[in-house]
């Protein structure tokens, strides 16, 4: 049985206890995931997502390439709008005219590389989204039951409205998309901001599944308000797991189990107060 951790005090240095707590939850989840059935489920989610999108991309390859070229054209247009001097061919000297075909060929190669880069990024993104959805739909309940055996002090059987849960999920999705759209207009750091927003809302959306039958909607909202920094750190650690060979295959189970540990420990702290 996991001991209820002491509720961390709110201080200017709250980042460090939040990071320790997040790492503790990841460590517990990693131990829980070293199970043949859990490993099978995690690998099956990855394989299923890869096969589905691989088959779809193969079947609609021409359409996907055309869409990638359109996206590349918009990017190139944006680059030339912000850096118009790149279009200048200089004075109409013989040297400039001789270099024009070389520049055109280089631009064509760059456009092709950008188009295929869009395809690769889209393929990876769709697989990650699919893995995330399959985790929440098929694996989360099983992981919650396994993790809950460590926390017998938590009372089960609390009824929650499925409609309220659906509204919360829709609200999280809309907020995340709006924040991402806003970040697109912020230069330089927009990529970092989008990563932080994606990680935060990805972890936050699992709180309801982790606390299903264990907390009311209001209790879930209160837990989120009190642990926003911890949820963000959990999301960032989840993203990091995907980059680690082999462990990344277990990521669906580790992500689900770690959020269960995080929520259960947070609820246990509330009960201990």
From TrEMBL:
Asked if the keyword Calcium belongs to this entry, the reply reads no
Task: Output the Pfam families linked to this UniProt entry.
Answer: EI24 (PF07264)
Mind telling me which residue stretches traverse the membrane in this protein? 38-58, 64-83, 95-113, 119-140, 176-203, 231-255
InterPro entries in UniProt? CysZ/EI24
Please report the record's description of how this protein sits within the membrane.
Answer: Multi-pass membrane protein
Location(s) in or outside the cell? Membrane
Entry keywords, A to Z: Membrane, Transmembrane, Transmembrane helix
Q: What is this protein called?
A: EI24 domain-containing protein
| Organism (species) | Hymenobacter negativus
- Tell me the classification of the organism that encodes this protein: Bacteria, Pseudomonadati, Bacteroidota, Cytophagia, Cytophagales
């Amino acid at each position: 049985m996991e001991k209820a951790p002491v509720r961390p005090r709110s201080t200017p240095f709250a980042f460090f206890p939040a990071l320790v707590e997040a790492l503790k939850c990841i460590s517990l989840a990693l131990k829980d995931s070293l199970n043949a059935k859990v490993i099978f489920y995690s690998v099956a989610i990855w394989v299923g997502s890869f096969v589905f999108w691989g088959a779809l991309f193969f079947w609609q390859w021409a359409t996907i390439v055309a869409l990638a070229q359109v996206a590349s054209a918009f990017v190139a247009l944006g680059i030339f709008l912000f850096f118009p001097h790149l279009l200048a061919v200089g004075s109409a000297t013989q040297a400039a005219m001789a270099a024009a075909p070389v520049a055109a060929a280089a631009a064509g190669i760059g456009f092709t590389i950008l188009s295929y880069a869009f395809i690769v990024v889209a393929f990876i993104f769709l697989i990650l989204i699919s893995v995330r959805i399959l985790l929440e739909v098929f694996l989360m309940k099983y992981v919650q039951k396994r993790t809950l055996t460590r926390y017998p002090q938590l009372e089960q059987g609390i009824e929650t409205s499925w409609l309220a849960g659906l509204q919360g999920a829709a609200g999280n999705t809309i907020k995340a998309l709006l924040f991402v759209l806003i970040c697109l207009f912020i230069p330089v750091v927009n990529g970092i901001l989008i990563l932080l927003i994606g990680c935060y809302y990805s972890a936050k959306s699992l709180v309801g599944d982790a606390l299903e039958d264990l907390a009311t909607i209001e209790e879930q909202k209160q837990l989120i308000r009190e642990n926003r920094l911890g949820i963000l750190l959990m999301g960032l650690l989840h993203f990091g797991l995907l980059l680690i060979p082999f462990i990344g295959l277990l990521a669906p189970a580790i992500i689900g189990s770690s959020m269960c540990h995080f929520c259960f420990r947070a609820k246990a702290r509330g009960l201990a107060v």
